[in-house]
């Protein structure tokens, strides 16, 4: 009886270790992308100018991960400069049937919010009496609640145990209203444990 208990404990320990080894590592990502937006009333989205993307992925299990993503799109005009973008809180779900070694497809879904920082240059106004009034520059920051939702997918391929390439696209919506499509290509780097190539 003692031997059976000991054998069962060894099997459970081995199974737990195997499950832990198949869980992907925490990873950081950086890349570039853009958003093809559909204007709708006052719900703002960045324009179609290129954006820088940063991402952190925390695996919860071999198939499911929690992600935080930021898209950052700076721009400027004669009135000033601004930085705008989206922040996304996502669930990444691996598609097990499509996984082949270091390659895996995935779907992603979650919530999205818009943020903006704007710096307005000093400007002058000519009054009806001919006098000129100069106003100082100012800045403001706006961060919306994550009222938007998104669903999408992509693929990721680890070229070595230290680096992977990822491509993805997502449909952004507000309730049932489509707001645009976000697409991105990024480089992923594991933190701590390395990628499995099996």
Fold blueprint:
Blueprint: H1 2-22, E1 26-37, E2 51-59, E3 64-77, E4 80-94, E5 103-120, E6 123-126, E7 132-135, E8 138-143, E9 148-160, E10 163-174, E11 177-191
Antiparallel strand pairs: 1-2, 1-11, 2-3, 3-4, 4-5, 5-8, 5-9, 6-7, 9-10, 10-11
How would you describe the overall organization of this protein?
- By secondary structure, the protein is mainly beta.
- The chain has one domain: Porin.
- The chain has one helix and eleven strands.
- It has an eight-stranded antiparallel barrel with strand order 1-2-3-4-5-9-10-11. Strands 6-7 form a two-stranded antiparallel sheet.
- It starts with a helix and ends in a 7-residue tail after the last strand.
- The relative contact order is 0.20.
Descriptive key words:
198 residues, mainly beta, Porin, eight-stranded antiparallel barrel, two-stranded antiparallel sheet, 11 strands, 62% strand, disordered N terminus
Mean pLDDT: 84
Which geometry do the CA atoms define?
elongated
Tell me the series of helices and strands, N- to C-terminal: HEEEEEEEEEEE
Number of domains as seen in the coordinates: 1
Alpha-carbon Rg, integer? 23 Å
Number of strands: 11
Total helical segments: 1
Q: Identify the CATH architecture.
A: Beta Barrel
Strand order of the largest sheet: 1-2-3-4-5-9-10-11
Q: What characterizes the major β-sheet?
A: 8 strands, antiparallel, barrel
- The amount of helix comes to 10-25%
CATH third-level topology: Porin
Low-confidence stretches: 1-21
Straight-line distance between termini = 37 Å
CATH level 1 class label: Mainly Beta
How big a fraction of the residues is strand?
over 45%
């Amino acid at each position: 009886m003692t031997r059976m208990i000991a054998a069962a404990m060894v099997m459970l320990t081995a199974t737990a270790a195997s499950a832990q080894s198949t869980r992907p590592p925490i990873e950081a990502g950086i890349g570039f992308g853009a958003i093809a937006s559909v204007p709708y009333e006052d719900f703002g989205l960045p324009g179609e100018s290129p954006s820088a993307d940063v991402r952190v992925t925390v695996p919860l299990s071999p198939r499911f991960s929690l992600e935080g993503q930021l898209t950052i799109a700076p721009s400027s005009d004669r009135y000033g400069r601004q930085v705008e973008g989206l922040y996304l809180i996502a669930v990444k779900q691996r598609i097990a049937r499509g996984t082949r070694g270091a390659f895996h497809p995935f779907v992603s879904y979650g919530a999205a919010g818009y943020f903006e920082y704007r710096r307005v240059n000093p400007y002058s106004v000519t009054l009806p009496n001919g006098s000129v009034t100069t106003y100082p520059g100012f800045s403001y920051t706006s961060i919306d609640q994550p009222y938007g939702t998104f669903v999408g997918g992509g693929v990721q391929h680890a070229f070595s145990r230290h680096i992977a390439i990822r491509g993805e696209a997502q449909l952004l919506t507000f309730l049932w209203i489509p707001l645009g499509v976000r697409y991105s290509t990024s480089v992923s780097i594991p933190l701590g444990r390395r990628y499995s190539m099996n």
